Amino acid sequence: xxxxxxxxxxxxxxxxxxxxxxxxAEFLGIRLTLGTVLRPHPATSIVDGYVPFPVxxxxxxxxxxxxxxxxTYDNVEQFVRxxxxxxxxxxxxxxxxxxxxxxxxxxxxxxxxxxxxRTITGLSQTAVTQIDRVNAAATMLRDGRDxxxxxxxxxxxxxxxxxxxxxxxxxxxxxxxxxxxxxxxxLYKICPRPGS
Length: 196
What we know:
It contains 7 helices and 6 strands. The protein has about 200 residues and is α+β, with helices and mostly antiparallel strands. It has a two-stranded antiparallel sheet. It has a two-stranded antiparallel sheet with strand order 2-6. A two-stranded antiparallel ribbon has the order 4-5. A hairpin with a 2-residue loop joins strand 4 (about 60-65) and strand 5. It is flat.
């Protein structure tokens, strides 16, 4: 509908997805860092999905029961700060050191840490590592790197392993990425995390 404001929160994704783009549509996206949560919508509740937010007649977005001025390119940082200051945007700590600091009884089991990580992010650590690596591969291919160099640099077993990861997480082939034919709206990282 022309002139209509729509606001949604998309969850973490475990595979490539497409989104309809109506003619003359304008978009503003705010990408949250891994583990940042918009209450009351934990990441685990919206994996591979989204939550639509109500919009008032005056064009304000209802989040957490309160109507907020819609973000624009000019006020987006203030919008995020206001959500954080209101306690709606939080970032629980993911690290083991942070967990140990809050639990003097000692080091938790790896299973406890894995559950905590998945509860906060909605994804397993393995899935996050795979997504980071394939996004680095997509970036390298778009920058003109040969698939052989990408396989070697990022530790894929072979071309088939890389091709499978690209189809699953990015939705395009290496050839499409190299040719610039692939429309990819969000590549999460330019390079993999250290140790990934």
